[in-house]
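Exercise 3.2. Students should predict the tertiary structure of the chain below and write it as structure tokens, then compare their answer with the key that follows.

Predict this chain's 3D structure.
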Amino acid sequence: MKKWGIVLGILSLFFLSGRVCAGSNYFSPADGTVFPTATYKIVLRWISKPGFMYAVRVMDHTNAIVRMEGNNCPPGDQYYACVNGLPDGTASFVVRVSPGHEYSWWLHEYEEGYPWTTPIGFPRFSVQRTLLEPPDGESFFGFVYRTWENLDPAYGDTRLFPERYTDSIQQELGGRIPLLISAAAPFQETNGIFVPFAQIQREIEQFEAVTGRGVIPQVRFLSQTGWDNGSPGYSGITVRDVTEGRMDEYIRSYARDVAAYGRPIFMLPLCGEFNGTWWRSCSPDANSVLTKEDFVRAWQRVVDIFRGEGATNVAWLWVAISFPSGADSSRIDDVSGYYPGNAYVDWVGVDHYDFGPPSNMDGMVGFARERGKPVFVAEWGVRHSSSSLKPYEQEQWLRDMFRYFNEHPEIKAHLYFNMSGPESMNLANNVFLYDGRVNYRPNVNDSDHRLIAESGANFRGTFAGGVAGSRYRDGNSLAPVLLSPAHGVVFPAGTHSIKLIWNAMPGSRYALRVVDHTDSGARTEFVCPAPEVYVCAGVFTATSFVIPVNAGHEYSWWVHAVDEAGRWSEIPVFPHFSVSAK
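Answer key:
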């Protein structure tokens, strides 16, 4: 059995908290570590020595219920997570933790067929909130909305985008500004030209130009050529092209552009609804040449490339189509085969329309709950072509959906699909509104999901009432909700300094503010835009900043880009941080 002492290097972005325990030769958190408000995951990291395998165990002192994950653990204790046989080169392990719970963790040397060794080290750890996850009890909402102009009345609305979007805010959202928007683009146009991230940025700017406020885009980064990947003759890009590395150069360039953008993004790569039978670019049930393994390996490859290019502003969104719940567990087993693993997914998503009751989402909500992931309802809407509901029943279905959201706190984001495709029928049968510029077919289910297509039912008022509650965050509350730790981070015993680190942003000049919620701003330095700020640095060009903090105090922090006129950006960035003991 090999014996050696592990060297714990100083690694950026790793949160160090601990002391040497009496009578032991390893590090452990002092009486365990208790994590602050909001749900976090911890990334345990160590320096891997070639030729060695490892085992990790994490104890949840607060929860006496055995919650083993991974392989067998040494007997005698109850563990939250335990895994052995981590292969040569492994240097990290991700664990989901609960706020207010107390944890300890240990690293062991491991050799198959032998007992676990005495722990050889306490890994350093970074604390991460699931990217863009709001606090418990809150949720984000938005619209999937057409940004391009089309004067053909067959598209149902000839108004220009600013008027359409403004009217939606007033009539469908009760004056609330959507926090989420959706922007989709294939990897490649039909003519073979690859689509740059700049195209998505232009769509984002269209929304922000109307309201003057920031939005968070859900970017559908689709591994396909053009928009016909549902047709039997489709022969464009597929997930296998990604798996085999043929898209690497394009994905790497895209990732660099996303990293340079710097602001939060929900990224839905490859495709959604992969468990359906319609997308030939990604689903084996639509294209027999492909496998589930192709999808999983392609997903992991995309995420690895983005992380390698420093695109840490991305929350990875994995979205299935809903299905009836019940005794048929094969539906969940089928979905599980597409899952890339917890380390590669931040949010679990589901698309659902009025072809079934809200309970059709139970399977995916349960899937997310078991893996400790928040839920994003990435598409939903009335008047689906498979719906059998009449307008008044669809109005009730909208109410039922909001009731379902409120009864399931795991659902922390949703996007209503407020769009329709072109109409092919005689428009003489349509209802016309807004001086003839808006039209729809009444009393039919033709996949025109716009809330404006009310057919005598009150879709717009019902939806506006649904998002009116305090549960839903809108564009007015973007910065304080998304881009700082939930209610701040409380540092454990010992006096520390923290080093805040962020990606370069456009303009290359920055301002920093840090709030000490415990000290009520008693240590204000520099000139800050708000009175509660603990420390506020003037304009500088570095992409890191070190400040002292006090143990037991609660902090939040933000970084702003600064333009040539000295104006701070309205939307800040939440930097990574590393912690060191004085």
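Discussion points: The first helix runs from residue 161 to 171. Confidence is low (pLDDT under 50) at residues 1-31, 478-487, 522-526.
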